[in-house]
Amino acid sequence: MTNILVVGDGAIGLLLSHFLSNQHNVYVLTRKATNNTRFYSRKNSASQKINARFISLNQLAAQPKFDVILMTVKAFQVQSAFEQVKPYLTEHTNIVLSHNGMGNVEELKSELIPSQALYFLTTSMAGFKSNQYIVQHTGEGQSVIGGCNSLALKNISTMANTLKSIPKLHATSNIQQLRFEKLFVNIAINPLSALHNVKNGQLRDPQYNSMIINLLTEACNIAKAQGLNIPLINALTTAYNVMELTAQNYSSMQQDVINERPTEITAMCGYINEQGKVYNIKTPYNNQLLAKIQAKKSVV
Ligand code: PAF
């Protein structure tokens, strides 16, 4: 059995904790009450208790050593959350990042020693918290894990095997490409669903077509400048497939905006805007959505 620390108890953190605790000792770092039971709920089946231990920061030192630390906090929270758990890393702790949008990998790489592997996990699994303690699993989706430093690239199959209780988990040797592909999905869905307050499936309506094509054209130009080959037609096909698969869901950004929480817009359209400056590529559509979401309350 592996000791896994999940950092963050948002919807994805709770879903992953539920699946991983079927096989491993799972601890979840939370800022909320630690003694309340958390539940996993799927469609009409009976809710199940999430079989993990919920702990606060001041309880970390009293836990056994962690083999894996899975960071499920949002992109803009990764650096500060990592600083909090860093004192509890062993020489061989594996770090797995999982968030929407780009960034963080280079920063974390420079904080780790060569015997600490760094991975990134992208997931299209969908869920939301119907209250602080219940996660509703609303959408099937693939999860893909890839290595971000030399040790992780070498050990990727072992890590994928350790995390195999996550449904539909695959390993890839090119996580940067996968992260970009997921970024395209998020750029097509998240800001528009948040601005128009609609479910993912409603974005298939013709009124959104040209905006989605323009956003993804700009993102494809950035990917190309970075040496990645992601044809626009593939990016559009994947985005529309995810809209279909998650048609009845609200995106994470829609949920953030409606609940007046900070959003991940800087790691999505903000990343395209920033890379546009680096490569001297114009990105007016991403800039426009970045500004509109930033104009909402509580945005980072
Ligand atoms: O951020 C989200 O909500 C999800 O990444 C996705 C895939 C867009 C589904 O809603």
From TrEMBL:
Ketopantoate reductase N-terminal domain: residues covered = 4-146
UniProt-listed SUPFAM superfamilies: 6-phosphogluconate dehydrogenase C-terminal domain-like, NAD(P)-binding Rossmann-fold domains
**UniProt record similarity statement:** Belongs to the ketopantoate reductase family.
One of the Pfam families matching this protein, by short name: ApbA_C
Read off the InterPro entries from this record.
6-PGluconate_DH-like_C_sf (IPR008927), 6PGD_dom2 (IPR013328), ApbA (IPR003710), Ketopantoate_reductase (IPR050838), KPA_reductase (IPR013752), KPR_N (IPR013332), NAD(P)-bd_dom_sf (IPR036291)
Task: Outline what the protein does.
Answer: Catalyzes the NADPH-dependent reduction of ketopantoate into pantoic acid.
Transmembrane stretches in the record are none
The gene from which this protein is expressed is: panE
* Metabolic or biological pathway, per its Swiss-Prot or TrEMBL entry: Cofactor biosynthesis; (R)-pantothenate biosynthesis; (R)-pantoate from 3-methyl-2-oxobutanoate: step 2/2
Q: Does the keyword NADP apply?
A: yes
Q: What is its EC number?
A: 1.1.1.169
Q: What is the top EC class of this enzyme, as a single word?
A: oxidoreductase
Please give the superkingdom of this protein's source.
Bacteria
Q: Which reaction does it catalyse?
A: (R)-pantoate + NADP(+) = 2-dehydropantoate + NADPH + H(+)
Is NADP one of the keywords UniProt gives this record?
Answer: yes
Q: Any idea where the Ketopantoate reductase C-terminal domain is? A: 174-296
Species source reads: Pseudoalteromonas aliena SW19
Q: Can you name this protein?
A: 2-dehydropantoate 2-reductase
Q: Which PANTHER family match?
A: 2-DEHYDROPANTOATE 2-REDUCTASE, 2-DEHYDROPANTOATE 2-REDUCTASE-RELATED
Q: Which UniProt keywords apply?
A: NADP, Oxidoreductase, Pantothenate biosynthesis
